[in-house]
Amino acid sequence: MLIFRQLFDAPSSTYTYVLGDADTGEAVIIDPVFENVRRDSALLRELGLRLVASVDTHVHADHVTGAWLLKQRCGSRIMLAAAGGATDADRLLAHGDRLAFGGRHLEVRATPGHTNGCLTLVLDDQSMAFTGDALLIRGCGRTDFQQGSPRQLYRSVHEQILTLPNGCLLYPAHDYRGLTVTSVAEERRYNPRLGGAIDEADFSGYMHNLGLPHPRLIDIAVPANLRCGRPIDDAGVPAEPAWAPLTYTFGGIWEIQSATLEELGRDMQVIDVREPAEFSDALGHIHGARLIPLSSLAERCTELDHARPVVTVCRSGARSAQATVLLQKAGFSDVANLAGGMLRWRGEGRAVEGGSA
Ligand SMILES: N[C@@H](CCC(=O)N[C@@H](CS)C(=O)NCC(=O)O)C(=O)O
Ligand SMILES: [Fe+2]
Asked: Which ligand has the minimum distance to the alpha carbon of residue 11?
């Protein structure tokens, strides 16, 4: 079975795609964004996927790729077109190559024109293709920088993308209106720049008159992407919390595991956010935990010490997850939720005060 996810980066309107083979757990990611690597690696972990490769459809001009950072975190190999001229890749791709993940693969098609190193990645059964900025939904990538060429783009789209089966779903690298997917049949008919009877001269005329301002980040993004997203020095690498080994969830919460809290919890403030009656019910509470119900945490967080990390606890880990959000808003930086709450703590046989055996 194929696992497929479409992820969004709002600042650059970029789509990132995860494709996984559920049978083997191997996955690839297409067009990851540097700032989203923590989110995307959390999703991969939660889906039980092992990232074997990241592939950029081109050297992007509007955001920095997450390829290098994902390699550090997941061990994935960095791949992109040889023609893009980037350093730091583990595999340079060319037209006709196959990029395998588990028992599945993507076929690599060269679709230059937006840049000279643009690739379209076609899933093995041709049910979906990832067109980068060659073909956008009712649009296409601009051709006015990075060796762009309307003539090349016209040919790439007509020969390599619109020749796919009509029902093939097309997933672009960007959409500026929030549209998510299109199909070959739709774009053949309705693409206002490339569909219907539009010829190469019509297309060139259109493209020479787009009048778009350059992407805001082009002077930062292009040099960084030519290094596959490798920062120039360590200052560019996002810091991990240093006070304990934590897990970041796709839901956006920092979690601490029971075993870690038991071992390292001495210097932490354990805040139990349940109601008073629950604090002394059958589940009991963690030794040294302080009771501050979630409903009063916003006003009582002044009782907490800003200099010491805070771990929040409740019955299942749900209310305490919300407590971490609230505490972060109140300016506490070192905060984590006890994963699974008292239920898991007890389920793993850890010691409590009060409660029944
Ligand atoms: N406003 C965006 C620029 C967006 C842009 O130029 N996008 C490129 C793709 S990298 C494009 O081809 N856009 C086509 C279009 O907007 O029609 C930014 O500052 O980043
Ligand atoms: Fe682009």
From this structure: 1
> Is 234 a residue whose pLDDT tops 90?
no
Cβ atoms 229, 69 nearer than 8 A? yes
3-state secondary structure at position 353: strand
Place of tokens 């259109």: 206
Q: Side-chain half-sphere of 210: how many Cα atoms within 13 Å? A: 17
117-164 confidence digits (pLDDT tens): 999 999 999 999 999 999 999 999 999 999 999 999 999 999 999 999
Whats the size of the chain, residue-wise? 357
Ranges of beta strands (E only) in 139-223 are: 139-140, 169-172, 182-183
Give residue 222 CA to ligand 2 midpoint distance, Å: 10
Burial tier of 250 (Cβ tally within 10 Å: 0-12, 13-18, 19+): middle
pLDDT tens for residues 11-31?
A: 999 999 999 999 999 999 999
Q: Which residues of 202-225 are buried (b: 16+ CB within 10 A; e: fewer)?
A: ebbeebeeeeeeebebeeebbebb
Average pLDDT, whole number, for the chain? 97
Q: Of 77, 35, 83, nearest to 53 (Cα)?
A: 77
Instruction: Collect residues with CB below 5 Å from ion ligand 2.
Output: 133
> Which pTM value belongs to this model?
0.95
